[in-house]
Design goal:
Elements: H1 5-17, H2 28-46, H3 50-55, H4 59-64, H5 67-77, E1 81-94, E2 97-108, E3 114-127, E4 130-133, H6 138-147, H7 149-154, E5 161-166, E6 169-173
Antiparallel strand pairs: 1-2, 2-3, 3-4, 3-5, 5-6
Length: 179
């Protein structure tokens, strides 16, 4: 099955949206708060609450893109997929930086009818006492990783991977490249 650019755009939109974010032991509260933040952001994306999603971005992300541009970009891609659920793996926290591996599942409706999943590492930063997902904002993530070199060595940024279910098997779809 040939994967068309619209399908890649839908998967990339999901990845980007969820990102606009010596080690210390994490407390159970920190891990719970991070998990809750990731789930909340996913739920906002799933229900189309794009304005609220923007308000929860790190300040550096909000400084790079206007709310109107962010919201309209998400609205343009919302008919390409229907988010279903997210699986959140173990949480690692160091000070004001956290990371978790996630798998998001969606039904892709255009340009074809298929189930997809996106495996992406979620980075979060704590600002003003709240965790904020910073996954697509590499400048912010890199600044925090440089300030926390031990954490950066243990949990380097991983490339997001997308898959489409074909005949009961997950087949990787290259992101950011033409097929």
């Amino acid at each position: 099955m040939k994967i068309r650019n619209d399908a890649l755009a839908a998967l990339a939109a999901i990845a980007i949206t969820l990102g606009m974010v010596g080690t210390a032991e994490a407390t159970a509260s920190d891990e719970s708060d991070v998990r809750g933040t990731i789930q909340h952001v996913f739920d906002q994306l799933k229900s189309g609450e794009y304005g609220a999603l923007y308000d929860g971005l790190p300040s550096s992300s909000r400084n790079r893109i206007s709310k109107d541009r962010f919201v309209s970009g998400l609205q343009r891609t919302s008919n390409l997929y229907q988010l279903q659920r997210i699986e959140i793996g173990p949480i690692r926290v160091s000070g004001n930086l956290a990371v978790a591996d996630t798998t998001m599942f969606a039904h892709i409706s255009k340009p074809f009818d298929a189930d997809g999943k996106l495996v992406v590492q979620q980075y979060l930063i704590r600002e003003e006492g709240h965790w904020r997902v910073a996954t697509g904002d590499n400048a912010t993530i890199n600044r925090f990783l440089q300030a926390n070199p031990t954490f950066a060595r243990r949990f380097p940024i991983k490339r997001a991977t997308a898959f489409v279910n074909q005949n009961g098997k997950w087949v990787e779809v290259p992101l950011g490249r033409r097929t």
